[in-house]
Structures are given as C-alpha cells and as structure tokens.
Amino acid sequence: MLTVISASLVTYQLGWLIKKRPTAALAAAFLLFSLFMRTAALIYLDLAGPVYSTQLERIIGGGSALPVFAAIVAAFMASLSFAFRPAALGRWRPPADDARVRGGDASTVAFVLFGFAILLLYGDLLRRQQIPLLAGIDRLQYTAVAGVLHVVSLEFGFLIAAALGYLFVRPRIRGREFDFRFLGLSLALLLYFALTGHRFSAFYSFTSFFVVPLAAIPAMAAVGKLPPAPRRSPFKAFASSPRGLTAGAFVAAAGLAWLISNSVTRVRAYEDPVAFLKQRILVQPSEFWCVTWEEIVSGVRYSFGDVWNRLFVDPIDPNRNTSIQWLMEKTLGYERASELLANGTQFAGGYPEVFFDLLGPWFAPIAIAAFLVPTVLLLRLVVRASVEGRAFTMLAGVYVYYGFTLLYIGGMLNFLSSWTYWAKVSVLVLVYVAERRQPAVEASKGTHDRSGVAGARALSGGGII
C-alpha cells in the first residue's frame, strides 16, 4: 500500500512540475527521466518481488523500498519548483535587439565548424567500409577501432549537444526564428550514433542536454518576455507545433525501439531477449537500492572509515566511479567485483544508496539535501545564461553540472576529489565574472536606442520633425 501511495504522489508531482514549471522539467529532463526509470523499477520490485537478479545472483524485492526513494525524488522536484518559480524567472534579462547583429557571423562560423567535424565523422565511418548497424557490429567494437573524433563525440557529447541546442534557440530568444541549421546538425549526429551501433544511452544523453538551453523559451514565456514568433514557412510552423513535436517524438521512439530490438536480437543475440530487457529495465536500475534498503531494515551498518577508504583512498579502480565499485564489492565480494570491472562491466544505480552506506540512515538525508542545492543552482545558472545570451557561462555551467549528474545517475562521489573538476569550476567562475555585465550593458543600450526612436517619433508627430 505504501508503494502504491508513494508512486501515485510522486507521479502527480511530476505532472504538476511539467504543467506548472515547464522550464524546470525541460532543463532537468536528463535527471528526471533517470529517477523515474528507477522509480518504475522499484514499483515492479516492491509489488512483483521477490524476484531474481541475474547480475547480483540473488533474490531481491518484495518489500517497501520505494517510499524513501520517492521522498528523495519528491525533494528534488520541490527544489526544482522553487528554483524555477516565476518570481525568480522575472529577474532574468534577455539580450537587447542590438545583440542580434553580432550573433549572425558567429553562428555561421559555428555551423561550418560543427558541420565539418560531423562530415569527418561520416568520412571515417565510410572509410572503414562497414556500417556497424548494417554489419551487426557492436558499438564497443567500433569504438575500439574508431578515430579520435569518434571518441571525442562520445565523451563530450553532452557538451556538444548543449552547444547545438543553444545555437538553435539563440535567435528565437531575440525575436527571430529558430536556427534550424543546428537542429539539422544534431539530427545528423544522432543518425551517426545509430549507424555506429548505439542503442539508447547516447540518444537519451544527447537529447536531454540539447533541450537544456531550450528551457529558456518557457522561462521567458512564463514572465511575458518572449518576443512574438516571426512568420514561418509551413515546414517550420509544423516542426514547431505540438503536432510536429508529437510526430517527431513518435518517430524517435519507434526508431529507438527498433535499434534496441536489433541490438538484443541480432548484434548481441541474447538467448532470451525478453528476459534480458525485463532485467535491464525493471530490475537492474534499482537492485542496489533494494539491497541497501533491506540492509537498513535489518539493522546492517557499515563503518564510515571503511566505506570512505573504498571510495576515496583505496578503491578497486580510482579512475572510474568508485561508488558502484563499492556497491558491487559489498554485494558480490571483492574477487567477483574486480573480475567484472576488469572486463569493463559496471552495474547501474548508486544513488542514494552510497550516502546511506557512508553516513547511515540518519545523516544520509542531510547529505542528499545538501547536494540538491548546487545541482539545482547550477542548472538554473545554465538556463539563465541561455536566456541572457552568455554562451560561455552556459557551456562552462553545463560542464560543471555534468559532474553532479554523475552522482544522480551512478552515485559517483569521487568526481569531487579530482583536481580537473575544480579546474572546470574555476573556469566557470572566470567566464561568469567576464560575461555577467554584458547582458545588462546591451539591455541598457537597447533601451536607450528605443527611447531615442520613440522620442523622434513623438517629435515628428508634433510637427517639429
């Protein structure tokens, strides 16, 4: 009963967030989707359990693991709702009309550079004379032999997506049409991912970060600052309409379903694809939280020093997500976990279970709440920078924000112990300071120019000019 009530309440809250705070829902789509996939898995594990986990090689579920997790998800959505409330959005200042003059040449240069890079990706693919999607080659096999640009496009795909999304939406913020050239480049890159054997993760990540700058549109519309849309061609009008977006979503969903089906039945050829997908979708996303919750209920506690040591001092592999390594080790044993990790296998989950193992059930909620603050504030900074035309702040903000998404997606905490992460934070601070006055200056200039024009018209109407 608690599982059903929790699921109903958190689903209602998500619907409210989408309807009343579309800016927050769009900006946080990457994390919201992941959290609700884990929520769906917990509903299944609570109601259908106990079930067997093929990864953990044990029976899990059948309890009430969802309510606490649902409360954490609800707290995240409440934080988003507060951070993106209309009163906060009303203080944001879109660029003045004069800013559009300088943007044209920069956008064209960006289009040429991105377009050339994507052509190089396709050229390298064709040079190898085998298309992984058509030849039944796994994405990991192709990545092992692909060029440097392919690796870069995967590792920094989230940043590329955010840049293309910003360039797509930038002119609309200034009262012009969306720049569909960058939508075309994004679709070309997604097609490349499909041809090179990718299934879901690459498309989910890329699309989620592409729409983050697009959250500037509902943000401006919510406070009446969105300029009227210019007259559009029939194609652009359809593409921007609810019907066009629905049709695009349907085509994308059908394409992804086919890619996943092709991968599990033809490329990897699982003996029982249905059983594999059932485990992958309904068990694996939340299996570690089920184990952790069972331990909490049973009174099992771990020493702070032991967990800290495995996370930050002596992990199995310090160059990867150490939280998952700890969870795999405590569940499967050191030898089995080390073997799987050496073979490149890393399980899903990690949040919020790593906090409960590290700090215990009483202090874990405090840490979870503390991490909500920088996560939501960084996301708000990224959307605000998109609204105000601060491109470098937006990109640096996405780069820093991405580190926190690794916590919510995989429980990763050791990103905070890397000096490179704090170098990214320093870059964000520098570009923020450098750009923060520019929108105000442009707005002031635009207001002065418009006042001059209005005054001239008034004098002309009075017969003086």
Keywords:
74% helix, disordered C terminus, globular, two-stranded antiparallel sheet, mainly alpha, 465 residues
Would you write up a description of this structure?
- The chain has 465 residues and is an all-alpha fold.
- It has a domain at 97-269.
- The protein is 74% helix and 1% strand.
- The chain is built from 24 helices and 2 strands.
- The protein has helices spanning 2-20, 22-27, 29-48, 66-83, 86-89, 99-127, 132-135, 139-145, 148-155, 157-173, 180-195, 201-210, 216-222, 234-240, 242-267, 273-282, 287-298, 304-313, 322-332, 334-342, 353-387, 391-410, 419-435, 438-461, and strands at residues 51-53, 58-60.
- The protein has a two-stranded antiparallel ribbon with strand order 1-2.
- A hairpin with a 4-residue loop joins strand 1 and strand 2.
- Helix 19 packs across helix 20 and helix 22 runs antiparallel to helix 23 (419-435).
- The longest helix has 35 residues, at 353-387.
- The protein is globular, with a radius of gyration of 24 Å.
- The protein starts with a helix and ends with a helix.
